[in-house]
């Protein structure tokens, strides 16, 4: 419930900021013109700043994810080697008998 309350609060603040930036259009109640201008401004902002930044963020995220997977693979290989070593040690134990009958 707290998540939805925070989401509602942030959405309300965002709407107020948009309305304050475009006060004349908002008070004129010309909603279609208001949305068209807002859409153009958003598209310009996306192409000018956010598009390149989102690609850089995605590239860094995928790079870090690849490194994480490589580390996990390395840990799994070490665990497999450890288990295999324990198994071989038990198979060739001190009594000279194998567990196979």
- Could you tell me the strand content as a percent range? under 5%
**Helical/strand content category:** mainly alpha
Distance between the termini: 61 Å
User: How would a crystallographer describe the biggest sheet?
Assistant: none
- Rounded Rg: 30 Å
Low-confidence spans: pLDDT under 50, at least 5 residues? Answer: none
Helix proportion range: over 70%
Number of helices: 3
Number of domains: 1
Task: Let me know the average pLDDT.
Answer: 82
Shape: elongated
Query: What are the secondary-structure elements, in order, as H or E?
Result: HHH
* Counted beta strands: 0
Keywords:
single chain, 101 residues, mainly alpha, elongated
Description:
The chain has 101 residues and is mostly helical. The protein has one domain. 85% of the residues lie in helices and 0% in strands.
Compose a concise summary of this entry.
This protein has three helices and no strands.
Which helices and strands appear, and what pairs or packs with what?
Layout: H1 2-21, H2 23-27, H3 31-91
């Amino acid at each position: 419930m707290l998540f939805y309350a925070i989401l509602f609060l942030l959405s309300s603040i965002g709407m107020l900021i948009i309305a304050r930036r475009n006060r004349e259009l908002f008070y004129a109640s010309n909603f279609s013109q208001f949305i068209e201008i807002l859409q153009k401004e958003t598209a310009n902002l996306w192409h000018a700043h956010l598009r390149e930044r989102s690609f850089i963020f995605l590239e860094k995220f995928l790079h870090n994810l690849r490194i994480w997977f490589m580390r996990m693979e390395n840990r799994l290989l070490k665990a497999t080697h450890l288990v295999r070593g324990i198994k071989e040690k038990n198979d060739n134990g001190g009594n000279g008998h194998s567990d196979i009958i």
